[in-house]
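User: Okay, second chain of the day. Same drill as before: sequence in, structure tokens out.
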Amino acid sequence: MPGETHPGALLSYVRGMTTTTSMGTAAESPAGGSGGIYVLAAHPHWRDSRVNRRMLAAARGVPGVDVNDLYGTYPDFAIDVEAEQARLARASLVVLVHPIHWYSMPALQKLWVDDVLAYGWAYGPGGTALQGKDLWLVATTGSPEASYHPQNYHRYFFDAFLPPYEQTAALCGMRFLPPMIFYGARSAGEAAVKAHVETFAERLGSYPDWPEIEEIDACIACPVPESDRPADNDEVGKVVSDAFRAAMVHGLASTTASTAPADGNGKAA
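Assistant: Same drill. Structure tokens below.
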């Protein structure tokens, strides 16, 4: 219920897993080497955040974790694909931290997925850079958990909105770990927020020694045949496509500051 201070009422691992429980500049403290953790935090309104802002700060305090505030790093939405792919290559665990916006991820996080997880690098023929890595979603909702129910206004249980995340991991050969979801961020009590942030930091610090990991099967292979994605030899078409994309990115960047609805319940998650 909104405002409840007992952690278990407001945060949980989806799929039945239970829990006990300056916003940054570019390229902060790369972990270096392999086997690290890369945290991608995406919130277009950090000043308004009650939970994500504190998770970002907590992640920065965990040794060996590479933390990237996407909206601080790329305010113009011009993502450095090579730099991002290099950071991914160094990590064994990729963590997506963000509020749920319209049953999905914030706009810049989606653009990051579109640009960085490229065909031939992350998936498709030759796209093996992420195979064997783990993907962990850590998200917040503005609405309480009870609202994600067939008899309530979101009409579905929350896990109905997870397949795009899970399939993104699968297509890249990654293992999708049970998401950590904090419900009702707008009205949650301080004790619940504090417990959630502490649990998040503890999980980062203890990875990969999580009990449930041993029970999770490796991701099944999802190869994409070359015939399903023929090479584009039309240079004119490519130029037009690039110009259209640049215009769209410019439009997104110019409107983000004023428009970023969060799961129909504001932007304070």
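The longest strand covers residues 91-99.

User: Thanks, on to the next one.
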